Amino acid sequence: MYENVQPMTAARARQEASTIFLAKTFNWMAVGLGITGIVAFFTAYSGLAYTIIGTPLFIVLVFGELGLVFYLSARIEKLKAGTAKSLFVGYSVLNGLTLSVIFLAYTSASIAGTFFITAGMFGAMALYGLVTKKDLSGWGSFLFMGLVGIIIASVVNIFLKSSNMYWIISLIGVFVFTGLTAYDVQKIKRMGEEGIMAQGESAITKGSIMGALALYLDFINLFLMLLRFFGGSRD
């Protein structure tokens, strides 16, 4: 009568480990979004945004962000946990500086409204990623191809300046980043279930930072795509 006690205990332990790891990851994501939001708001309303947009400084900041993301992704195993935290915070600050320009282009009310729409969509897809029994790992290559397609099309449209292509890219982007949200949440959940919590505090911190970065990027990009549809222009 006791033969199922051990499997149930092991399953519960995996579930609890996954829950703790997910909580750490979402906490770091929230920290990153909070930093970005505060920096963007004060940069815009202090007037500093006007010295960023349309200047070489904006390009420098964008390349700085890309460099931090690639460096974190490539070197996370060799970095100290404290360094990974600092780089994530630094990325959040840089992204806040560049995103401050949206306050110059859109009304505050439409930005706030779009944020809540994004939060709702993100939350729904995150919940799906948590509870679904379906293996979403097969989505990875498909979503990655969609992401590459968005990047290439966006670069091409810089020269074409096609409004139709702009809206198509935005719509595809919404689908890609909602899908990535569910995919990334399920992947993070499995990291917690598969033993990262037993690898020590440093591994847990670095793993949660990388998971937070993925979810942060999903949220920010989904927000920017939706802002194209729901953002009210200041003009």
TrEMBL record:
Segments crossing the lipid bilayer: 21-42, 48-74, 86-105, 111-130, 142-160, 166-186, 207-230
GO CC list: plasma membrane
Domain of life: Bacteria
Entry keyword annotation includes Membrane: yes
UniProt KW keywords: Membrane, Transmembrane, Transmembrane helix
Subcellular location: Membrane
Any Pfam family: Bax1-I
Membrane-topology descriptor: Multi-pass membrane protein
Presence of keyword Cell inner membrane: no
Family the UniProt entry places it in: Belongs to the BI1 family.
Record protein name field: Modulator of FtsH protease
Provenance organism: Desulforhopalus singaporensis
